[in-house]
Write the structure tokens for this entry.
Amino acid sequence: MIGARFRFTRPETLEEALDLLAGAGGLGRVIGGGSVLVPALVAGQDAPALVVDIGRLGLGSVREEDSDVVIGAAATYATLLASEVVRRRLPLLAAMLREVTGGPGLWNLATPGGAACYANPASDVPGCLVALGAAFRLASRRGERLVAAENFFRGAFETERSPDEMLTALVLPAPEPGRHAYYKLKHAASSWPIVTASCLSIDGRIRLCLGAAAPVPLLLDWPTPSTTEAVAAMAEQVQAAIATEWTDELAGPGYRRAVVPAVAARAIRAVLEERTS
Amino acid sequence: MSEAVTLRCNVNGSDVDREVDARLLLVEFVRDVLGLKATRVGCHTGDCGACTLLLDGAVVKSCLVLALSAEERAVVTIEGSNNLAEIQAAFVAENGFQCGYCTTGMILTAAELLRKSPHPSDMEIRHALVGNLCRCTGYDAIIAAIHRAAERRGAVGYAVGSRQ
Ligand SMILES: Cc1cc2nc3c(=O)[nH]c(=O)nc-3n(C[C@H](O)[C@H](O)[C@H](O)COP(=O)(O)OP(=O)(O)OC[C@H]3O[C@@H](n4cnc5c(N)ncnc54)[C@H](O)[C@@H]3O)c2cc1C
Ligand code: FES
Ligand code: FES
């Protein structure tokens, strides 16, 4: 059983949830799938006063809104993997989702929204959301705001979200899908990512976002290259763009920096050669 | 702070109404409060899958779920699952277990896979089992058992559900 006591609520309205969070100061936690928060509570790494379960707030759906796809914060990996809208309009997101490990017992629970709020650099989700130009809808008693993914991820395990704010949705612009590739380097099938690369071809340009290489996703953009030398040069530029390398128990100092050019080049080539992953 | 709170849910087809502490995990609720011991704890971190059960009809790792999150929802453990006999027989026939600790999670996960994909490929089976660890068998026998269960079922579909 979890050691430290806390108050648990599973409110039925967003207003109630936001009031509770506002009242908890910095000691309120939102629980999505719980796959990060619950083990942290069990291990005594986090000791909130209040846990707010968003399971009854009706935030679990995927909707098309004009040119955007709006994904509710409580939508699970399984919901998105089964979504025809995601498959059709966000094939890069679908490719990323297929690469998440943990098995159905995790996919049926955990949410990309939770992964984004956790902001672990070594996750599949942040880099892909930055590549897709996602925006984060944050709600609090002070009002609602939309934060672009590039501004949302502020550092390792650090986001723009304040403790009284709840992520209610991910808003993804979904123009006519172009060529895309999701490539990740990891040590074993069940391992978390060492480096991820989300690559898109948009309007004659190549957009590449690297995840896990640095504390926050790294976004680069070029005109479509026409030679293999040009791709190699792009891959070198990606490496040079890493100001601070991310290191953790999966990969120590120098490892990620060393593998980045190969990962970047593979993703770019996959897009140029029209191989989709 | 946290006092005992009432938890109302349905477990294996019966309505349950208990006072629980907010700190209780769903796996602890089924094992320690309700005495349903087939659901196991192997890691408490979401990695092993020994705690797999069904929540609203989908397999979940119940060490990642607070018991109170099951309020007004349907929980099914392997004790309350029907239509598993063929999968269980296939695990026996193929020696798909040794100590048996992982087996309930393996069987419930296999059942969900076969429900969605009646004739899975090797890769599909491996993908579905990526979150279920077995320290005994080396997995080959488990994969063979799931293939065998799929063949035995033939064209006959089946569902996972609670015994009413
Ligand atoms: C076995 C296993 C395998 C995994 N494999 C992968 C993998 O391959 N790739 C990967 O990227 N990750 C992986 N993960 C990590 C992680 O569990 C997931 O990325 C997951 O999506 C987290 O989401 P959740 O809904 O469970 O988060 P929760 O645990 O519910 O929340 C995580 C954090 O975000 C906050 N939060 C959640 N929702 C909101 C909200 N709506 N508003 C405000 N704050 C919120 C919580 O307070 C908490 O701090 C794995 C985890 C496990 C256990
Ligand atoms: S005990 Fe839940 S996954 Fe290991
Ligand atoms: S049979 Fe022993 S852990 Fe799988």
